[in-house]
Amino acid sequence: MKLNSYPQNNFSRRTVLRGIVKLSLLGLGVAALPGCEIFGNLGPSDFDDPGLGAFARFKGRQYGAAVQSGQLDDATFNNALCKEVTMIVPETELKWDAIRPAQDSFDFSGYHKLAHFAGANDIRMRGHVLLWHLANPPWLKPALARRDKAERILEEHIFRVVGETSGVIRNWDVVNEAIHPHSTRADGLRQTLWLEALGPDYVAMAFRMAHEADRGLTLVYNDYGTENGDGDGNHKRQCILRLLEKCKMDKVPIHAFGLQSHLQAHKPLADGEFKSFLKEVRSLGLKIYITELDLDISHLNGRADDKIKIAQKYVHSYLDLVQDGAPVDMLLTWGLSDRYTYMHMLRPEVIGALPLDRELNHGPLWETLVTGWLKYKAVV
Questions:
Q1: What is the pTM of this model?
Q2: Quick check: 290 and 365 in contact, CB under 8 A?
Q3: pLDDT tens, residue by residue, 160-215
Q4: Closest of 111, 66, 126 to residue 91, by C-alpha
Q5: How far apart are CA 291 and CA 286, in angstroms?
Q6: Cα–Cα distance, 60 to 369 (Å, whole number)
Q7: What is d(CA 165, CA 146) in angstroms, rounded to the nearest whole number?
């Protein structure tokens, strides 16, 4: 029975949907309502909106967003965050320059503020990032001059950070952006202070250290640009796949691949090549997460409404490609609202980059995630 076939004098579509939403939020499911096609045509005006996180939980998934601790001083943003997410990731608070201002001291104050908020509101956390070529303190590069010292510094850092966060964080971006699309190396590795100090095995080394620090963690390799249908995208796909294959062959404890998904709506998607790449990643026994989704429509031509329509179709196509082999059970956007996004550093006006607009209302990306990521098929 379709929703619109209920007797109109007893049930309105809105009333039925509200009931379904309430059942789902209570964890009761909707199997007793055969034929209910919820998500395919669902819009935010159709019910008392429960937020993306509620939809994700209903589908057995996690929706989260990157947050900076200073944003928690905005009470209206806090309310939106509690309503929309089931998970947060510190945008900056666990990077080297934030937590290790000096070699012999750590500062977790920003992380603790986020962790307290998450705990008080029953929100999960994931970790970002244990090793990256950016956001490093000034003391680090000279301290890595000797290989044995560099290895000790990395091990000390990973063990300390994992130890500090292990009661809260069980899923980590261990290595971020190790591959560069214009690398001249055969393996595609980016020229970084870590490559210089420890050689190409630094990626495997970091994963092994994180696993040794806590064997129950889910460990993720995170990178960007693999969706692009150009030479850079093709090169990254090939090099990342070789890196992951080598890690698995060498029994490196890596469990998932993180697709950053900083989508630029004017760039063509790789389509078949991208799907084949993800199929190969899954064949290695790795999960696939979407870890940093946001959307740039600034390079599209036309009126804002037209650009948003093009961008929504683009994101739908991307989500279909990513989920061609299997649903993605964890998706995070790199921020929740256009009010707070790094994109403001690149351009004054930002529209539709994140699920909520500047006023914290549902934006086009919110709707696209409901209908594109969390598609609901009819119960039969």
A1: 0.87
A2: no
A3: 999 999 999 999 999 999 999 999 999 999 999 999 999 999 999 999 999 999 99
A4: 66
A5: 15
A6: 15
A7: 29
325: Cα separation from own chain's centroid: 18
Task: Give the separation between CA 117 and CA 113, rounded to whole angstroms.
Answer: 6
> How far is Cα 305 from Cα 301, in angstroms, rounded to an integer?
11
Exposed/middle/buried for residue 95 (C-beta within 10 Å: 0-12, 13-18, 19+): buried
**Amino acid at position 260, single letter:** Q
Quote the pLDDT of residue 352. Answer: 87
Work out the average pLDDT over 133-146: 97
What lies within 8 Å, CB to CB, of 112 at 6+ separation is none
What are the φ and ψ backbone dihedral angles of 270, each rounded to 5 degrees?
-80, -10
> How far is Cα 194 from Cα 201, in angstroms, rounded to an integer?
10
Residue appearing with tokens 């351009």: 347
Cis (ω within 30 of 0) for the bond into 380? no
Burial of 19: CB neighbours in 10 Å, binned 0-12, 13-18, 19+: middle
Backbone angles phi, psi at 358, to 5 degrees: -65, -30
Tell me which residue of 54, 46, 61, 64 sits closest to 3, measured CA to CA.
46
Q: Are 94 and 161 in contact (CB under 8 A)?
A: yes
- Phi and psi (nearest 5°) for 288? -120, 125
Domain 49-370 has CATH 3.20.20.80: yes
Q: Is residue 25 pLDDT above 50, yes or no?
A: no
pLDDT for residue 41 is more than 80: no
156: amino acid identity, one letter: E
Task: State the DSSP string of 133-182.
Answer: SSS--TTHHHHTSSHHHHHHHHHHHHHHHHHHHTTTEEEEEEEE--B-TT
Residue 140 neighbours by CB under 8 Å, 6+ apart: 96, 103, 153, 193
